[in-house]
Amino acid sequence: MGFTTKDFGPDFKWGVSTAAYQIEGASTLDGKGASIWDVFANTKGKTYQNQHANTSCDFYHHYAQDIALMSIMNIPNFRFSISWSRIMPEGTGKVNYKGIDFYNKVIDFCLQLGIEPWITLYHWDLPYELEKKGGWANREIVNWFSDYVHACITAFGSRVKHWMVLNEPVVFTGAGYFLGIHAPGRKGLNSFLAATHHAALCKAEGGRILRSMRSDLCIGTTFNASYIQPYSMSKQDELAAKRVDALVNKLFVEPLVGLGYPVKDLPLLQRLEQFVKSGDEQRLAFDMDFIGVQNYTREIVAASLYKPLIWATVVKANKRGVETTLMNWEVYPECIYHVLHRFNSYKPKALVVTENGAAYEDVVIGGEVADTKRKQYLEDHISQVARAKKEGINVTGYFVWSFTDNFEWAEGYRPRFGLVHVNFETQQRIVKQSGKWYSKLITETALVHLADAERYA
Ligand code: GCO
Q: Is the domain defined by 13-456 classed in CATH 3.20.20.80?
């Protein structure tokens, strides 16, 4: 192991991550309104084998069992998201108190067992009623989102201290509003650019609302972060890599830290101007308490004449003969070290790895899941986080994606990311070998620091 449990210090936040639509199920229960993912996944031809998350791991009914399991595994931090349409079935206006009750139960049970809840406000499941009014492409969303943030902080703010505003905005705007492969399934540059600008505004506005409502919060937001390298040393490939890097890594973080959109690296972003109103540049900025970095792999990029707009293409891992996970993502542990350095260049107050993990096709044999590859993946990536930390990067937490197997969006249930195996028919949970390993690692860390503290007391 390239690290020891001491490398992370006593205050390091070890945790696991999940998202509402991927785990909760109970898609129409207790007054919940439909979200864009409910509609998309229940439309024929949109997901792998037409799978949907109407029931998924049924966290809605199994939350106590799952949080108790987390506690047995000594996992001290739990990141989950709130389903906007469970709290506000129409997206704005009337609050559904049964929805609030559900999250109250989750939060209270976490606190009772000594687990710190970390809330993501938006993990891709927009209320469908809002999509009917234009969704993220309608600037009104800044007001809709503000109402929703108010409702959440009012209900949960006295007990939840860690908040994340948006999860991976470039993925939900890119896949959902440009490529049409995620909900709501819209295509086209204009809807993407409009959604981008409005999401960027909401991200900062959400932070401002949280801070204005309470002064005792730790506020962040999360970004997908990829280590991007050119396919060859040619000028064309280098420029292509730069453009993709601007789109994947810079588009949302740079306006947040006050640098504006990365138009110089990706000229097509000039077209964002049509959606920008006076005063927006200031409104896009907010000084988060932490930046959430989510990394799984690296991307190799080549110039391409077949992809107008960006003139670049990603050279897929299976074309490069490298080791991959089930997502066809290259296993390249150093990538997390590089993205931490990269995001550190924006001088955030702190960085937290809010997601990292690997999907494999796990099998249960004799009641056990011997997922040695996942264990190795986690160990190698955590080792690279330790390397960055030793070099002075202020990374203060690490969360595995994911606690249990769940619904992997358009890919359905085939890719399993969990530390805990789920049988989606019986809802039985089995802690995988990787889960036992992670549990042991973080338990040891806690014990080592406890022993140190006692020695110096
Ligand atoms: C994302 C989301 C998660 C995914 C995970 C694996 O990063 O896409 O935050 O919901 O399930 O990343 O793809």
A: yes
